[in-house]
Amino acid sequence: MIIIQSDDLRSKFINILLKNSFDKNDAELCADIFTENTLTGVASHGVNKFRSFIKMVQNNYVKPKAKPIKLNSFNALEQWDGNFGSGPNNAWLITERAIELAKQYGTGCVALKNTNHWMRGGTYGWKAAETGFIFICWANTIPNLPPWGSKEARTGNNPIIFAVPKKDGPVVLDMALSQFSYGKLDTYKKAGEKLPFPGGYNSDNKLTDDPSEIIESFRPLPIGLWKGSGLSLMLDLIASILSDGNPTFKLSKTEVDTGMSQVFIAVDPEKFFSKDEINNLVEQIISNFKSAEPIDNNVDILFPGERAKRTKEEYLKNGIPIDELVWEKINSIL
Q1: How far is residue 304's CA from residue 141's CA, in Å, rounded to a whole number?
Q2: CATH number at residue 186
Q3: How does pLDDT run across 198-225, given as a tens digit for each residue?
Q4: What residues are paired with 257 via a beta bridge?
Q5: Angle, to 10 degrees, between the axis of helix 182-191 and the axis of helix 47-58?
Q6: Do 71 and 190 fall into the same domain?
Q7: How many domains does the chain have?
Q8: In terms of residue numbers, what domain contains 236?
Q9: Is 187 within 8 Å of 199 (Cβ atoms)?
Q10: Among this protein's residues, is 117 annotated catalytic?
Q11: Is residue 14 situated within a structural domain?
């Protein structure tokens, strides 16, 4: 591992994005998102993913100058077309639009089609919650998760995010619908480590904690087993209907995360309660949650988003540990 300061990492991202046809403002926003993802400990959707993102730009899957456009609207509900622009940039702008609608109507729902991988979905939950909004968003993906009882990937590990504002840092749950996301499987694989729990099946149809075997078989376990499988299907259905975009089965033609459908929902709780009332209730719920007796003294009860906040504070102070090979590959990008 080598240690890189966040400002240096951001500058590196910006320079590469500018060389790959991004406008200055778009390059800075995209670099901010990749840097933030890395700072919060999600290198799999930050620095480790940056090279493949640039490859998608160079292969014309991601169009760096494309902007999302509004297609239809009905009060607080809108449909937008991402025009195959940068996934992180599109998601950031559509999050802002959902917040604008929520300010006006109390809630805002924007469905987006023809967009690309948004990297860490939690980024947009943090943005909304830090502004005071409850937020839910999700995306469909290429088929990479078998329906329960099947050997064949026909649905996606469709990531879903829930975010709630809190004064000293929001509560943000960011999860794929597989027990371990492919990014997390790759992280364990690169580290040469086994999973802490079985995460899927190998090619012999046996449960395994070996991330390499799961990546090879393309058979991760859905969260909650059959429940996660059903939830994946529902998220795909709703995203496809609301956006009039591609369902997962149509995304199978590309083998990369492009042309996907996403939904962004913002709610303004201050339409009913004061900011202090909201924060007091959230703090009481979190305090009760964290007061549960741990199974042993080595276990720390954390609420969703707490680890990310701690990691960011540590990395801002001491620098970001980055795999040397990953850094070498980024420096080789033309």
Answers
A1: 23
A2: 3.30.60.50
A3: 999 999 999 999 999 999 998 999 999 9
A4: none
A5: 120
A6: no
A7: 2
A8: 65-178+224-271
A9: no
A10: no
A11: no
